[in-house]
Design goal:
With 240 residues, the protein is mostly beta strands. The protein has two helices and 14 strands; from the N terminus they run βββββαβαββββββββ.
Length: 240
């Protein structure tokens, strides 16, 4: 089955909120005033996003996308475009280079556009101070086998930060909550088995979701062939 994609590069996301809380229970406060709270690890992601106005034929495309979902019965992959991920468009170029292990002092530049480049084979740069090639990007991968339900994952070499999010090959979303070297503690626990060398999408993480209601995401269309801002409420789908 082909799962449609709501791509942040195609429809501009103004803002989004997404969280993955557990379910908590409490019996209230006891005679001593203390309150005991327990939780179950049945976490799933839920959230909302706001799309910027959509114009002209892009509106037709969006309308067809929403109709194809058939309300909350359909599923789709959502691109979060994490602003803290590793990509040219969503993070600083310097952070991207540092993640790759480059020492900025060893590179040419930056040029007038703030871009660093690789020097020539003899270590020299262009006379105008720019480099010869843009360093290649190697996506992060898993550095070991990790079982379903594991709350840790070993990452390939790189400069990671607590709070970063990534998606696994089957578009399950996870967040790094602590780091010990290249070992990351994550929430929620892994939804699928991760093989050695599996690509982990830290650039534009994807998550499979469905609408929270049948009417969520419906646009208000103005006569000038444009919409107002569009709100979409969604929740994670675990089935594959």
């Amino acid at each position: 089955m082909t799962v449609p994609l709501l791509d942040c590069a195609e429809f501009s996301i103004k803002s989004h909120t997404i969280s993955c809380p557990p379910t908590t229970f409490t019996g209230g406060r006891g005679l001593g005033g203390f309150k005991q709270t327990t939780r179950t690890e049945n976490r799933y992601w839920r959230g909302s996003l706001t799309l910027n106005r959509i114009f002209n034929k892009d509106l037709l495309k969006y309308r067809a996308f929403m109709s194809s979902l058939a309300g909350a019965s359909g599923v789709f992959d959502l691109c979060l475009c994490d602003p803290f991920g590793f990509s040219f468009t969503n993070s600083s170029y310097e952070d991207w280079l540092k993640f790759q292990g480059y020492d900025l002092a060893s590179l040419c530049g930056p040029d007038i556009n703030g871009i660093y480049g690789l020097p020539f084979s003899d270590g020299t740069c262009f006379s105008d101070g720019t480099g010869f090639l843009i360093p290649p990007f190697t996506p992060p991968t898993s550095a070991s086998l990790s079982a379903v339900g594991s709350s840790t994952i070993l990452l390939s070499e790189g400069v990671y930060e607590v709070g970063m999010r990534f998606s696994t090959p089957n578009n399950y979303l996870h967040e790094v909550i602590s780091l010990n070297g290249s070992t990351a503690e994550i929430v929620p626990p892994l939804r699928e088995e991760i093989q050695l060398g599996d690509a982990l999408n830290f650039s534009d993480p994807l998550i499979r979701v469905r609408l929270s209601s049948d009417t969520s995401g419906q646009p208000r269309v103005f006569h000038g062939k444009m919409t107002g801002e569009i709100g979409i409420d969604f929740e994670e789908v675990l089935e594959r």
